[in-house]
Amino acid sequence: MFISSLFFNTALNLNRTVFNSAIQTVRPARFAGVKYDQEVIELDARPHKHWQHRCPHCMESCRVYDHQSGIVSWRAGTFCGEPVYLTYSPARIFCPEHGVIREYLPWVCGRSWFTLDFCYEVAWAARFMPKSAVSAFYRISWQAVGNCIAIAHEHLEPDVSLRLIGLKRICVDETSYSKGQKYITVVYDMDRCQVVWMSEGHGLEVFTEFCLTLTEEQRDKIEIVAGDGARWIDTATHDHFHNAHRCIDPFHLVGWANDALDEVRSEAVREARQVYAETERRFMEGIEVSSEAIEKAEAELEEAENSGDTQKVENLKKYIKAIKDLKEGKKVKKINRLRICLTPEQQQVLKELKAIAKDLKNARYAVGKNPENRTEHQEEKLKVIEANSPTLYKGYELKEELRQISHMKDAKAAEAELDRWIGKAKNSGIPAFVTLAEKIERHRQNLLNTIRYGANSSQSESCNAKIKKIIRRVQGFRNLDTLFATIYLECSDLVIPLPHRPQFTAEQIAENRRKAREMRQRREEARRNGRAA
After folding, report:
1. pLDDT at 209 over 90
2. How far out from the chain centre does Cα 169 lie?
3. Boundary (domain end) residue, out of 453, 485, 515
4. 467: nearest Cα among 176, 217, 260
5. What is the pTM of this model?
6. Where is 385: in which H helix or E strand?
7. In this structure, is residue 212 part of a structural domain?
8. pLDDT digit string, tens, across residues 217-263
9. 3-state DSSP helix/strand/coil percent for the chain, to nearest 5?
10. Mean pLDDT over all residues of the chain?
11. Rounded Cα–Cα distance for residues 361 and 522 (Å)
12. Percent of residues, the chain, with pLDDT higher than 70
């Protein structure tokens, strides 16, 4: 049937293409292991006469060598909910420069069986939807989604190594992408807020591979190498980046302090539970059983036997045997109902000890949160800790002092305060903080470099969180190239072009991100000032 080529050229964003006919037909398909027939639109397409029989490399008009037997089809998006396929029987041409090759087809994207616009659309959807949902929506296989992502990135950024140009401040970190200790190493440009290099694995060998990827001139221009406290980062920085300063973000410093504090809290919980158990045992040993208690229990047993409650009968028999043994001076196992034989004062003591152990167990957020972010309930828990666990409260104060040092802007004042804190922590008598003080002493210069040069790798940590979200969204990658392509697309200012839709440019995206960051900082300062007042 006759159709308007202009209509489909506009709808599918195809140029240099003529459509002869369109038919609605049925094609076999497979989804989630189930075969079914789906209705599709097939467009009989061909290149415009002026663009026929041209070499895809040099675009020169060439003579026809032979014709390919059979019809080939390419997926070209969706029209009114139905997949659209372009069908054509391409010819092979003879190019004097490139030899025998398939002719240039305006809609073909390399060796893919998808049009470029369709790959862009799938890649854009994969940034916000799980792969399985994208596969179901576009009626393509799960593997085809990954191929479309890789093709889109390849066309938007043919040479990823261009990201390495102009590096000055970098942050390196590793993140797991699958179970079984499978890691990737990510290098992040702190100035342009984008991932510049990735590789499978982690450690000195992998980071050295990145260092050797740079030229000697590029390595000399590196000013800051930020990251966590891994020694392999220190070693590679010392060996390859002779003009760089090694920095450790305050985020990691406070994280170390919180880990040490949590260790102290766990030990305090164990001690509180031991005190409770010891006190309960001592009270139980001194129980005096009266004849009235035995008579009351026997009456309850008779009622239970009459009602047919076998479970209650068994419990009451154990209880009666236990209180009789106690009356005779024999040792018995702990039974909860024996507590009714305790005096009210003893029961109150046990109740308070149990509440203290419970408060210490549930105090992780109370001692870990910043003061300006704590709730009233958490403030009450902190008072309970101060009254009942001096060691834990002392660890909390050390953690808060270290956090205040990490926010200082004056490097000299921070150096004096950090040295004072290290001495105080070593003499605190708390093993976890003594170990932490030794660790901070090893990284002392790197921590001070962060304050001195204002190197904040929080954006890199945000990038790691985004990578984790990507991995969770697709529920694992079987092909690391697809994972890398997805990360390069999402952790940068690359704009995936979508036809007939308005989009932000890379510059607008960067400006919007800067404004959002400034607004977030103002809100944080206002909240801190409000809490302080």
Report:
1. yes
2. 23
3. 453
4. 176
5. 0.74
6. helix 376-388
7. no
8. 999 999 999 988 889 999 999 999 999 999 988 888 888 999 999 99
9. 55, 20, 25
10. 83
11. 35
12. 89
